[in-house]
Amino acid sequence: VDELVSLASLRSLELSECTHLTGATVVKGLSGPTGAQLERLAFRSCTGIRDLEVFSLAQLCGGTLRELDLTSCIYLTDLSVSAIVTYLQGLVLLRLGWCKEITDWGLLGLEAPTRREREPEVETGPSFTRTFGNMGFFQPPKNPFPARPPPVEPVPPTMQGGASLLALGGLQELDLSACCLLTDMSITQVLRHRELRRLSLALLPEISDASLASVASHCPSLTSLSLNHCGRITDAGHCRRLRTLDVSGCKRISLTAVDHLLSHLPFLENVNCR
Question: Pseudo-torsion of CA 263, 264, 266, 269, nearest 10°?
């Protein structure tokens, strides 16, 4: 990898399944003119790639990179998404499948609420024994400690760099398979890419028909859609231009519904429903 720095004409780099590769080594090898010319990077199953390396690589390759595959880089979080949407806005292909730490907040470009904001403390009154309860015979002793201040109202989320997935306006292929923390909250808001042709939302247990209706409305060029094992999906017939559809493992879509899809989607050629 150290020799990459001398390959000034390098345009595509495939390092998938190099499990012993460290992110720092890659960043070092792509420093200088090499990284500035790359159009495609693939790190599938490179678990040594972390948020810090994605941030550095995004800055190095931001001017030219068009395809980025981070499938199964399992330690990546919303910080990597923030770097990608900020520095790699020319991407046409992005694969983040099996990056299970990515959340709705990352796609939305917002700061996740803290635990205290999600679960504000509730002050409870004095407690009494089960035998007597509070029957009015006596007043509870005064608390010698100062009263707790009232719970702080949750602070509205703030933007991380001001960019969401919407910043990647030229996306043609997106893979979010098995990013199992994603829900309708982000999918309905940020999947609005008019040039998007291939989309995988497989193994997202929390998305519903609301996400599909939104995708159909805002991604008019979509021709391939994977929804396998999305247990809440009941209707996949929203996207009228689909040619390939995978609804295998979608238990709420019956064979009758599949027949209906075949008869009502005029361009549909291939349906996987096993």
Answer: -50
